[in-house]
């Protein structure tokens, strides 16, 4: 299976999973700073429908700041389209992406989409059911390739990473961080919410890279 086919299969699975969320869950703050779960879904659609010209114009309107433009586009789309409407559009665009979604490397896009799925599910305390193959592919990409949207490459430097639920590991030296694959994907993407679920002598170093606040581990 090509990575592009894997991305489409993952998007189809994602649509099925989140179709069952209620209105309160869509309105709930996600793990992505200042975005609701509804905003995160809109962001995924923006990624498939927005062309480079439109993005450059939006960045110019927001003082040359990409993050501000990105947030504005997601919120604007969420204001005029319900989650059901956005899921329908995602279903149409995932096989025929336009603009940035067509040229952005599918391997990096898969990591972005799974990280945002975890932003939604962990926020409303739903247990993710992402296939092991998808999680392993994302982790392999995260530790090997810089992604302008998910800072996992930087966060993973010098750490030995181990997953406790799938057969995956990275690094031969350095402090250890271990946990379930989905939690590791989320934390490497600079989401501190799942830090307490990780273990090892490298957790404090990882935490210092992604969160200014001390962590409190369970158990």
TrEMBL record:
Pfam families for this protein: MDMPI_N (PF11716)
GO MF term list: metal ion binding
Domain Mycothiol-dependent maleylpyruvate isomerase metal-binding: 11-90
InterPro entries for this protein: DinB/YfiT-like (IPR034660), Maleyloyr_isom (IPR017517), MDMPI_metal-binding (IPR024344)
Gene3D superfamilies: dinb family like domain
Protein name according to UniProt: Mycothiol-dependent maleylpyruvate isomerase metal-binding domain-containing protein
Protein's organism: Mycolicibacterium moriokaense
């Amino acid at each position: 299976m090509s990575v592009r086919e894997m991305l489409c299969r993952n998007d189809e699975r994602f649509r099925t999973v989140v179709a069952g969320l209620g209105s309160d869950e869509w309105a709930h703050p996600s793990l992505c700073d200042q975005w609701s779960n509804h905003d995160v879904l809109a962001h995924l659609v923006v990624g498939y429908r927005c062309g480079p010209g439109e993005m450059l114009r939006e960045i110019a309107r927001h003082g040359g700041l990409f993050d501000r433009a990105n947030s504005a586009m997601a919120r604007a789309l969420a204001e005029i389209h319900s989650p059901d409407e956005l899921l329908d559009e995602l279903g149409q665009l995932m096989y025929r992406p336009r603009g940035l979604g067509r040229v952005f490397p599918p391997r990096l896009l898969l990591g972005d989409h799974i990280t945002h799925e975890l932003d939604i599910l962990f926020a409303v305390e739903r247990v993710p059911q992402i296939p092991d193959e998808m999680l392993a592919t994302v982790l392999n990409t995260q530790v090997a390739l810089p992604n302008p949207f998910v800072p996992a490459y930087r966060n993973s430097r010098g750490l030995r990473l181990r997953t406790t639920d799938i057969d995956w590991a990275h690094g031969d030296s350095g402090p250890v961080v271990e946990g379930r694959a989905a939690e590791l994907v989320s934390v490497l993407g600079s989401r501190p919410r799942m830090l307490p679920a990780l273990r090892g002598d490298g957790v404090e170093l990882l935490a210092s890279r992604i969160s200014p606040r001390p962590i409190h581990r369970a158990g």
